[in-house]
Amino acid sequence: MTAIVPFLDIAAGNRELHLELDAAYARVIQSGWFILGSEVSTFEREFAAYCGAEHCIGVGNGLDALHLILRALDIGPGDEVLVPSNTFIATWLAVTHAGATPVPVEPLAATHNIDPARIEAAITPRTRAIMPVHLYGQPADMAPITQIAAKHGLKVIEDAAQAHGATYLGKRTGTLGDAAAFSFYPGKNLGALGDGGAVVTNDSTLADRVRDLSNYGSRQKYVHDSAGYNTRLDELQAAFLRAKLSVLDDWNARRNVVAEHYFKRLTGADVVLPAVIDAARPVWHLYVVRTRKRERVMRVLAEAGIGVQIHYPIPPGRSAAYAETSAAKVDCPLADTLSREVMSLPIGPHLTIEQVDLVCEALLAALDAA
Ligand SMILES: *Cc1c(COP(=O)(O)O)cnc(C)c1O
């Protein structure tokens, strides 16, 4: 059956912005310039300013953004990077692609974000960086993380792919570590109409290295200083993203209204609701609840036409991709439990309160029946 309440209605966002998106398309088509032009450089300035950072470098996607940061920091074979045990696999893959080893750290059960109290036990002489993920749109608890990093001489790389505009102690993600990676995959809070990503940092040397690596290791055409990659944000996507950036705060605020309504309707129900730490202002990329009755509840919700999803059903360390690696041997019982119990309810800037009520009524009935 078709969804009465879709998990996320991207087309509704495009309809709302169609004049701006059409104008962006027309500008780029008429310019005849598609790679590394004024749309990209302008978007980079605008997004850096939005984050409150010095530099933004547009790249091809979020995975490449993470990978290029590691490469620019010379993190590679023989090095270890601490990653959450319960993230999207891209966080781990970036480390693997750089030739380094991902070392999982378990989350706080309440927030699902990396547990600062478990970080030091995972540090070895080979550890080079901590890569916290601002999972589901809530900033990780960055103050203790950066403190531990400073004490051990480690870099902090934010995976901000789900947290455009979220703040921690009043500072936006992208400015909370040494460098941050963003994804502009269409379903993200700031989404392009295709793939896209960015590196954000206050470190000029790092920014230059990322920029070179993203464009064939070259600053001057046909002069190649390093064995770089081709992973660039293109002009069309940058133009679309400029239109989307102008409404990001408004759309994040609308997500927040949805989240507030879920809290209001679901508090007291037999389901674990998201916990938010005092220092954080999340942007609700996802609204994730926990229940041991997930399979039955999801079946009932699907029958009622409610789009629910699981983020994520298999922890990276349990996936076939990591089966033969040292990371798979690290026990992560909390990641295992979360992967069995989490369920993401519909959320987005175009969900109506009537739709949120439908979700809540269907969920409450499903929980009772299960
Ligand atoms: C989406 C996502 C990425 C990867 O972004 P892509 O643009 O799809 O490569 C990385 N980390 C997290 C946590 C994500 O959600």
TrEMBL record:
Keyword Repeat: no
Alphabetical list of InterPro entries matching this protein: DegT/StrS_aminotransferase, PyrdxlP-dep_Trfase, PyrdxlP-dep_Trfase_major, PyrdxlP-dep_Trfase_small
Signal peptide from the UniProt entry: none
Catalytic residues of the enzyme: 188
Assigned keywords, A-Z: Pyridoxal phosphate
One Pfam family per UniProt: DegT_DnrJ_EryC1
Recorded superkingdom: Bacteria
UniProt name for this protein: dTDP-4-amino-4,6-dideoxygalactose transaminase
Species of the source: Paraburkholderia diazotrophica
